[in-house]
Amino acid sequence: MGDISRGLVPPHHILSTFGDGQVRITAKDLLTVLLVDEKLNDDVMNFYMALLGSTACMTRQTSSGLRVFSFSFFFFTKLQLHGHSGVERWPKNVDLLHFDLIFVPMHKDNDHWILLFINLRGNVFEIFDSYPPVIADSRFYLSVFELIVQYLERHTSYGQLPGSWESMAGNVTVEGVPRQVDGASCGVFMLMFATLLQHGDRPPFRFSSEDISVIRRQLATCLLEHHCL
Q1: In this predicted model, what pLDDT tens digit does every residue of 28-53 receive, in sequence order?
Q2: pLDDT per residue over 8-27, tens digit each?
Q3: Strands 124-128 and 112-119
Q4: 114 is in which domain, residue-wise?
């Protein structure tokens, strides 16, 4: 990875593929992981979230009995921009009610990564955001809950019961959630939130902003070797 950090590998050289080649990581993508002042890009986020919902990351998942599904970040972006018609076919041939945990990564304003966590075991929607609560956007959070409830009401059999999804609580989890102290590490925090939740862990999460540089190096290895943090 030293050659990549020094810019000695062509930026569009493909380093790793996953899911029959549907997602891939290039040297340019991996640089956003290795450089501490860079935000993780879309391809890194989608690649890791695909890993998280696959058999590559099932060791601890199996022991906890949790079945996990993860959307790509494109899902919520399309839902915001185009409404239900934009995600009519998502996810294809997947029964969401088969899963215990559903992850929806969100790229707010194309600038800040936030995790929407649909906990079907706990019957709750949760948002995990690494920004301090004093600068959080409560209006955005409310719109997220409204959009996802409307989507689920239309696209799952559970939604055929009036108010079934609306009855689930919507929480912005604050206590025990580590916070970023820079402007670039939100994606790393979001991936850590998802990983720990997939393990069955709950806040307080045992990492902090001081661990981010080490986590970035571990994440780079995960992307190349197809395992999770």
Answers
A1: 999 999 999 999 999 999 999 999 88
A2: 789 999 999 998 778 999 99
A3: antiparallel
A4: 2-225
Q: Cα–Cα distance between 123 and 54 in angstroms, integer?
A: 23
User: Structural domain tally of the chain?
Assistant: 1
> Which has more confidence, 183 or 91?
183
In angstroms, the CA 188 to CA 181 distance is 12
Q: How far apart are CA 14 and CA 205, in angstroms?
A: 33
* Beta-strand relationship, 23-26 and 68-70: unpaired
- What CATH number is attached to the domain comprising 107? 3.40.395.10
The C-alpha atoms of residue 211 and residue 17 are separated, in whole angstroms, by 27
Amino acid at position 51, single letter: L
Residues 6+ apart with CB under 8 A from 29: 15, 41, 43, 44, 47
Structure-token pair, residue 100: 């215990």
- What tens digit of pLDDT does each residue of 192-201 get? 999 999 988 9
Read off the pLDDT of each residue in 166-188 and give the average, rounded to a whole number: 93
Residue 52 vs residues 19, 157, 193, 228: alpha-carbon distances, Å: 12, 25, 12, 7
**How far is it, in rounded angstroms, from Cα 228 to Cα 40?**
16
- Confidence (pLDDT) at 58: 61
Distance from C-alpha of 180 to C-alpha of 186, rounded to nearest angstrom: 7
pLDDT of 93 > 90? The answer is no
